[in-house]
Amino acid sequence: MWGFLARRLATILPTVLLVSMLIFGLQQLLPGDPAKILAGEEQDPQVIAYLRARLHLDEPLPVRYAYWMGGVLQGDLGESVRTQQAVLDLVIQKLPVTVELGLLAMLIALLIGVPSGIVCAVGRGGVWDTVANAFALWGLSTPNFWLGILMILLFSVQLGWLPASGYVSPFEDLRANLAAMIMPAFVLGNAIAAVLMRHTRSAMLQVLSSDYVRTARAKGLRETTVVLKHAFRNALTPIITLGALELGTLLSGAVLTEQVFSIPGFGKLIVDAVFNRDYAVVQGVVLITATTYITLNLLADLAAFAVNPRLRP
Amino acid sequence: MFHIKRSLIAVFCVSAAALSSAQTLRVGLAEDPDVLDPTLARTFVGRIVFSALCDKLVDVDEKLNLVPQLALSWQWSAENKTLTMKLRPGVTFHDGEKLDAAAVKFNLERHKTLAGSNRRGELAPLASVDVVDPLTVRLNLTAPFSPLLAALSDRAGMMVSPKAAQAGGANFGARPVCSGPYKFVERVAQDRMVLERYDGYWNKAEVHFQRIVYTPIIDATVRLANLKSGQLDIIERLAPSDVEKLQQDKRFKVSRITEIGYQGITINIGKSDQAQKNPLGRDARVREAFELSLDRQGLAQVVMDNEATVGNQWVAPNNPFYAKNMPLPKRDVAKARALLKEAGVPNPSFTLVAPTTSDAQRLALVVQAMTRDAGFDVKIQAAEFATSLNMADKGDFEAYVLAWSGRPDPDGNVFSFHGCKQPLNYAGYCDAQTDALLNESRTQRDPAERKKIYEKIAARVLKERPVIYLYHRNWLWAYNGKLSGVRGIPDGLLRVHGLKMAP
């Protein structure tokens, strides 16, 4: 167990380094000159020259990477050329928002997806299975932004129950925070719930047809005990893996949903930065996101060990 | 005990929230502004925030007349090479510092010297600034420069506190200190900018809201939904397609005014070798045929739901500098065909680069359909804005859909676009006589004389057609019907003076 952890931790560092090189290199493939787009409407040649010098754009790629990495290693992710705000500050501002939205969406996805997956597997081919399958199909095939706009039109404009968009910190006003988050969290969670439900269903079906479940039933155990205690625990492994991957995706920002609900999270930050060629912001955010993703994967592996002793090395 | 304390806090918070919402103006912006430092700022949307945050030496009114703001009066010298300005007495910055002649000198010099300044071009002929007395400054120019006052009605005329600017250094824009009706409180990128009324403001009686919160919401539908649900009080850039329905709703009002900018198609006529490879860039007759095959009113109707004024010049037909000698041409497909035949290319084909915004894409599609009648084969290439700008700059295009937000003085709409080798001259148009006229227009201060020069420029440029001007969009602000005092200024910016919310 500890050896495994040490080995995994040892692979994280080179992975992050490789990711940082990839981000840096791939970004250079974006068409357009960042100095020009940052110079704004006037396109003053002196401003463009100043920005080129400031961003080291005339230096070779490895030198520019060294400048950036040198800063990163000292905890300095650079500064947004567009707004003069430090990238680290931007990350600190956005991370809690994205984490909260991601966790809420995941909570909604788990609350809907897992129980409905179990119900489907147990009552395979029955009414509930059909209903839940239809729901899953709907969740998977509905575009997030469309559902988001429809929800805004219904709950905010028509009924006036929820704010149309915006964000309030939970430390400022928890109620307002939840009111602002519930729609975007549902929109995101809805799609993931569908995926989770499908996976839970198939994992459960597989487990329910295995020998030990038959044995448990033959021993006369109650059906709920068989399903929840014996079968579900073994079906959990793929669900945890999938959940962690989905959570990682959520934490890298849900671009369209954040855009529609004006949630100031990672997705909005990075998309605006890409369009404005604000390289320091793109690099900083992607690096943080990649690190989070890798960490979550490790945590998922540890969680899988916890529920399934057979996986332990 | 703990519960009582918590309830008290809750009651306090609720009442404070109720109180503050009544005195807060919530503005929905279409983009997130860039840095809030007038010297470095680059975006249109940033200017909306600045008009509450930073006063300018002069302002423009509904008719684009220059009116006093921080400067009460101004006087040009006989040869138009010095401008003497009398400042408003008793004005202070948000940090309590005095706004006097020395502060103005500091600011103008900062615009000229700060690394990365975007104001240098606007103040190019400014050689030095003299402090005549505490309330009088003299601007000495190397040559007469008539667009100067108009530049001082925008970011070049905004004054920041010298003390705060020196203390803030390179990060001043993250906490700007100006002298406008509202002072900076906080900014959360892509979420909000909060300003609070400045109690020491010289025109305090005209400022009614305690706070202003600007929220960037990019999607026009969502912006409107926020207005309708009461989350916002006023939004900019209402989608033209939403106007009719919103006007039927008594709870809301719409303010519209013709922009000072334009929408047009830039044609590569000399930016790169590509110009000569295509009949459109090579032959002025093909460009004339292209223009004649367009029905501008039809374009405005389909693309903008008629929320635009058609035009064929860099200023709108209602602008005093509109050249009447070059009237709007009517669509004439037969003549267009004849011209193409004469040029020996009955079916010219070229690619029209259009940014990925829905307006630009719609425009390109309608242009494609309209010009087909005359025999044109237009291919559309969608390119994200930064990419399209890069293509334009390299001359890697044949025709390009490009809009300009406009400047109050016509010079800002034409000099950099049609002067040889100027930064915004993507068409690659270069004509010695036009250049001479453009320079002459800058030295002439008499509006009647300037107008004559612009008529000559228009006659030359519009014959060559480096840019085919199409229309001038309406600035559409939608707001809560209880809000009064919304003024439609052609620069499209929201003036906060006089804004009031009825109970």
* Number of helical regions of chain B: 17
Largest sheet of chain B: 12 strands, mixed
Q: Which sequence of SSEs, written as H and E, runs from N to C of chain A?
A: HHHHHHHHHHHHH
What is the quaternary state of this protein? heterodimer
- Kindly report the greatest chain-chain contact and the residue count on each side: A-B, 50 and 52 residues
Binned, the helix content of chain B reads 25-40%
User: Count of helices of chain A?
Assistant: 13
Which descriptor suits the 3D outline of chain A? globular
List the helices and strands and how they pair.
The complex is a heterodimer of chains A (313) and B (503).
Chain A: H1 2-27, H2 34-38, H3 45-54, H4 61-73, H5 87-122, H6 127-141, H7 144-158, H8 174-208, H9 211-218, H10 223-251, H11 255-261, H12 266-275, H13 279-307
Chain B: H1 2-22, E1 24-29, H2 44-53, E2 58-60, E3 66-68, E4 71-76, E5 82-87, H3 101-113, E6 126-133, E7 136-141, H4 148-151, H5 162-168, E8 182-188, E9 192-197, E10 211-216, H6 220-228, E11 234-235, H7 243-248, E12 252-258, E13 262-267, H8 274-277, H9 279-282, H10 284-292, H11 296-304, E14 308-310, H12 333-343, E15 349-355, H13 358-372, E16 377-383, H14 385-394, E17 399-404, H15 411-418, H16 432-443, H17 447-464, E18 467-480, E19 483-484, E20 500-501
